Amino acid sequence: MSHGSGGQMTAKLINDIFFKHFQNDILLKAEDSAVLDMNGKIAFTTDSFVVEPLEFNGGDIGKLAVCGTVNDLISVGARPLYLTCGFIIGEGFSIEQLERIVISMSETAKEAGVKIVAGDTKVIETKGLFINTSGIGDVISSVSISNSKKGSKIIVTGNLGEHQASIMSARMGIENNIKSDVAPLIGLANIFEKLQNSPKNIDNSEISKTAIQTMRDITRGGLVTVLHELCEKSNCGVLIYEKKIPVCNEVKGFCDILGLEPIYMANEGKMLIVVEEKYADKVLEFVKNCLYCENATIVGEITDGSDVILKTLIGGERILSPLYSEGLPRIC
Amino acid sequence: MSHGSGGQMTAKLINDIFFKHFQNDILLKAEDSAVLDMNGKIAFTTDSFVVEPLEFNGGDIGKLAVCGTVNDLISVGARPLYLTCGFIIGEGFSIEQLERIVISMSETAKEAGVKIVAGDTKVIETKGLFINTSGIGDVISSVSISNSKKGSKIIVTGNLGEHQASIMSARMGIENNIKSDVAPLIGLANIFEKLQNSPKNIDNSEISKTAIQTMRDITRGGLVTVLHELCEKSNCGVLIYEKKIPVCNEVKGFCDILGLEPIYMANEGKMLIVVEEKYADKVLEFVKNCLYCENATIVGEITDGSDVILKTLIGGERILSPLYSEGLPRIC
Q: Is B37 on the interface with A (CB under 8 A)?
């Protein structure tokens, strides 16, 4: 508990664990705020992480905390640059486990090209660990959940449901090979510049700056929840094809047994991208070449309706209602 | 628990409570990150709040969360502009109490001139409420904990110990009039410009841009903890005078009974300001005219030693050791 007092014990914890692994010139100044040079439009976001268990197949709360905020920045067309992290630590929490989680954060931050520039530590009597990460990045392109247009194609960057299936497996004590998909989708940051400079430019014409209309990472509540937000904000409908929804065999089996639907399940390394129809194949090709996106696929399109409709395998149409309550707390 | 699922229940909570009170054009876009125009140097900071009780004489966790982050930004010479907030809410938490706290945040944010531009909500099984606030501001002047120079004067902006005494009183069930000092010290933001434009310019000469060397809000661990950080980072010593330390009579009495020292106690609306000696009186006069700073006083000076020394009331000198562990968890 004394690690949270603000005195010498707090300083020791910060030096021994956080500064050691999060080293960078800005953090080490130990000011009350990091001072950064930014010009123009910046993106600013926050996310708290309360996942249980703290370590799971494919990741841990630290990796999740970095990826979640990095992906939220990428979702608005930004290049992620700086993170802060706030730790709320239960008394008696293992220092070894804390250090493992901090190392995981540090490695993920390196992979994502972001610096952790400020932090805070509090200690509480309750067991466990909660991490908040906030992040800023410079906004390069203008995408928005309100910007999807009728006829545009919807790309999902990979297999759905893996994060939730991994957490559920851990909680239920089921042994399988399902790994959380938690990943920083840094290949999708700055996507316009990359597309424009792409040597594989199919028709050699410049890709329009408005080609990509919406990006949104697909987390809690799954694909359907994102699609409902999109319909509401972009004032449109959506049609997706069940046969196109990418799901790996193991998650498919897991879902069949438990009666779950991957389109409602949480992911931590998947993006939804809405692209103007004529650029859809080119963007898909680009996306498939990004790390963690090799299974990207076009799952459907924007319609002039207002519902989220699933074309089922047998050819029927089903209106997908929004998730009301999934009953799976502490998924991220 | 379903309020944390990411589905409709989460959306309802966000609309009914957070959007309702935190209304502004940026937040209402409901993107994954807020997009903001910033130019030049910006300050970026984070803080988590776990105070218990959640509501206390003089404030609540929401007011604390806004003030803490606002004051951290002011500490590096920034003008606070935008906040994010992350809520971790215990299952079964009273919606009425949550709304009271959110209203308190909203009012404090208005007073401080900051907008809450992004947020996040998680629900856990544990009881209680934790709030993280992160903030950004534009940096106008350059102050640093590493920048204090020998001979400079140390201003404390008001009476010490009130926040901690208020929290302790609440926990111990002691009835008294001690109010937490929690406040946004917004009058101290942008202090240089204000000083330069001050009509009360004592000698009519422009105040030097380097007049104010260090600002730091005095929170957990109290004045002595800040002074130790300052000595370490600025490579100096400090002499403070016991008779100059501002403490109100009620806190003095409270401390006498419990054997506490106000210089080690937590505050939530007090700043330490180190000023070049020749400008000290002018800056003090300015500070005393700022809201929440009327009891500001010069408590000591920077020395060429390395210790934090207290000149006692009876004329002796006492080396003040850093706080090791104060045994008062969840003070902020």
A: yes
Residue pointed to by tokens 């959110």: B102
- Taking the Cβ of residue A124 and every Cβ of chain B, the question of whether any pair is shorter than 8 Å is answered with yes
Q: Tell me if B329 and A5 make a contact (CB, 8 A cut-off).
A: yes
**Quick check: pTM over 0.90?**
yes
How far away is chain B from the Cα of A222, in angstroms, using its nearest Cα?
A: 9
What are the pLDDT tens digits along chain A (332 aa)?
777 777 777 778 878 888 888 888 777 777 778 888 888 899 999 999 999 999 999 999 999 999 999 999 999 999 999 999 999 999 999 999 999 999 999 999 999 999 999 999 999 998 899 999 999 999 988 899 999 999 999 999 999 999 999 999 999 999 999 999 999 999 999 887 777 776 555 554 567 778 999 999 999 999 999 999 999 999 999 999 999 999 999 999 999 999 999 999 999 999 999 999 999 999 999 999 999 999 999 999 999 999 999 999 999 999 999 887 765 789 99
Map out the domains of chain B as residue ranges.
Answer: 2-139, 153-319
Contact A119, A88 (CB under 8 A): no
The helix (H) or strand (E) run that includes residue B2 is none
Architecture of domain A2-139: 2-Layer Sandwich (3.30)
Contact status of A253 with chain B (Cβ, < 8 Å) = no
Between chains, do A323 and B47 touch, taking CB under 8 Å as contact? no
**A140 at B interface, C-beta within 8 A:** no
| Residues on chain A touching B31 (C-beta within 8 angstroms) | 75-76, 144-145
Put simply, the answer to whether A146 touches B29 (Cβ < 8 Å) is yes
Test B46 with A119 for CB contact under 8 angstroms: yes
CB contact under 8 A, B124 and A330: yes
B33 contacts A45? CB cut-off 8 A: yes
Dig out the tokens for B123 from the structure: 């629900």
B295–chain A nearest CA distance, Å: 24
- Cα(A283)–Cα(B3) distance, integer angstroms: 36
Rounded distance between C-alpha atoms, residue A30 and residue B216, angstroms? 11
CATH code at A153-319:
3.90.650.10
Amino acid at residue number B311 = K
Whether residue B75 contacts residue B216, with contact meaning beta carbons closer than 8 Å, is answered with yes
Of the candidates A37, A207, A48, the residue with the CA atom closest to the CA atom of residue A138: A37
What does the H/E/C string look like for chain A? CHHHCCCHHHHHHHHHHHHHHHCCCCHHHCCCCEEEEEEEEEEEEEEEECCCCCEECCEEHHHHHHHHHHHHHHCCCEEEEEEEEEEEEECCCCHHHHHHHHHHHHHHHHHHCCEEEEEEEEEECCCCEEEEEEEEEEECCCCCCCCCCCCCEEEECCCCCHHHHHHHHHHHCCCCCCCCCCCCCHHHCCHHHHHHCCCCCCCCCCCCCCCEEEEEECCCCHHHHHHHHHHHHHCCEEEEEHHHCCCCHHHHHHHHHHCCCHHHCCCCCCEEEEECHHHHHHHHHHHHCCCCCCCCEEEEEEECCCCEEEECCCCCEEECCCCCCCCCCCCC
B32 CB neighbours in chain A (<8 A) are 45, 71-73, 75-76, 145, 216-217
